[in-house]
């Protein structure tokens, strides 16, 4: 526990106690096997901690990014690794802020309960990292579907998520007024996508992080899975990334020891 008490002692104590049940040895063993810490992620989900920022009416606790940061901090302070599951806390923010009421009512309670994990976000591409507006993955509307073609790289937790936010270009760069226009966010059901044109290729790396390259070959996504307004997705992704950066900053205050 921290030296100076703050207003979040109850949260700190509860998260610390739960996380302490998964000591270094638990994580070391999983890291050797390059396996996912299912048990602690389930325990944190069941206790409601990963649904902290989901509003109460959708099954969460309705807390803010400060409380969520405290949760991240305490998981790592106890010696566990919050990096395995922070995505479940913030990715839903894009859906919460910009999704339709129907999408929110369908997905958010399931995300809060851990029935669906929305831990993946597909933005980066092999030749387009920081310069996001240059992404080349396209979605072309055909009737009630978008047809996706392209490639993503370094996409985390795809193998531990049922859902993924995917940033695509829906209007060619040459046809938009501002380069950040014409990008859209689609909610992808990873289980269906794997059967219908998305290939997931794991990337070998030096940490126990589920990183992947994704290939899209005429993957069809229902237009109902568009989040918000077509062409405005860049802003929606930034909204989610703001919370991501804050939560990651909180967890790296106490780097994992194992
Ligand atoms: C472990 C890991 C997990 C990741 N998980 C995900 C994920 O889940 N989803 C996802 O979409 N992406 C993910 N990424 C990708 C990550 O977000 C990108 O690496 C990041 O956006 C940077 O892109 P890049 O690697 O292509 O670097 P580049 O864009 O090539 O940048 C390289 C360096 O150049 C600097 N630079 C770039 N452009 C400029 C400029 N104009 N002026 C000055 N400096 C500049 C950058 O700051 C950086 O230091 C992950 C990466 C890692 C390593």
Walk me through the structure:
The chain has two domains: 117 residues, Orthogonal Bundle (Butyryl-Coa Dehydrogenase, subunit A, domain 1); 114 residues, Butyryl-CoA Dehydrogenase, subunit A, domain 2 (Beta Barrel), CATH 2.40.110.10. It is 36% helix and 21% strand. The chain has nine helices and eight strands. The strands form two sheets. The protein has a four-stranded mixed β-sheet. Helix 4 packs across helix 9 and helix 6 packs across helix 9. Bound molecules: flavin-adenine dinucleotide (FAD). Flavin-adenine dinucleotide binds next to strand 1 and strand 3.
Domains counted in the coordinates: how many?
A: 2
**What value does the average pLDDT take?**
94
Radius of gyration: 18 Å
Q: Approximately how much helix is present in the residues? A: 25-40%
The number of E-state strands comes to 8
The geometry reads as globular
Unreliable stretches covering 5 or more consecutive residues: none
CATH topology of the largest domain: Butyryl-Coa Dehydrogenase, subunit A, domain 1
Assign the CATH superfamily of the largest domain: Acyl-CoA dehydrogenase/oxidase, N-terminal domain
CATH C-level category of the largest domain = Mainly Alpha
The sequence of SSEs as H and E is HHHHHHHEEEEEHEEEH
* Bound compounds: flavin-adenine dinucleotide
Number of helices: 9
Question: Largest sheet, order of strands side by side?
Answer: 1-4-5-8
CATH architecture of the largest domain, by name, is Orthogonal Bundle
Distance between the termini: 19 Å
């Amino acid at each position: 526990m921290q030296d100076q008490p703050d207003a979040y002692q109850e949260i700190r104590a509860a998260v610390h106690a739960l996380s302490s049940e998964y000591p270094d040895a638990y994580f070391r063993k999983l890291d050797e096997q390059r396996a996912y810490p299912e048990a602690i992620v389930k325990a944190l989900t069941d206790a409601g901690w990963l649904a902290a920022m989901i509003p109460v009416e959708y099954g969460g606790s309705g807390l803010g990014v400060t409380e969520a940061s405290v949760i991240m901090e305490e998981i790592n302070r106890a010696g566990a690794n919050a990096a395995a599951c922070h995505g479940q806390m913030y990715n839903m923010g894009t859906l919460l802020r910009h999704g339709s009421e129907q999408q929110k009512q369908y997905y958010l309670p399931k995300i809060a309960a851990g029935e669906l994990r929305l831990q993946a976000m597909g933005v980066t591409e092999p030749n387009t990292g920081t310069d996001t507006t240059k992404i080349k993955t396209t979605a072309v509307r055909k009737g009630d579907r978008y047809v996706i073609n392209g490639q993503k790289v370094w996409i985390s937790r795809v193998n531990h998520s049922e859902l993924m936010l995917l940033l695509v270009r829906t209007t060619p760069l040459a046809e938009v007024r501002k380069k950040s226009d014409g990008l859209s966010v689609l909610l992808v059901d990873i289980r269906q996508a794997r059967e219908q044109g998305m290939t997931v290729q794991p990337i070998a790396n030096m940490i126990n992080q589920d990183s992947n390259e994704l290939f899209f070959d005429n993957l069809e996504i229902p237009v109902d899975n568009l989040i918000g307004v077509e062409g405005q997705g860049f802003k929606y992704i930034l909204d989610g990334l703001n919370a991501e950066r804050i939560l990651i900053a909180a967890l790296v205050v106490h780097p994992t020891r194992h």
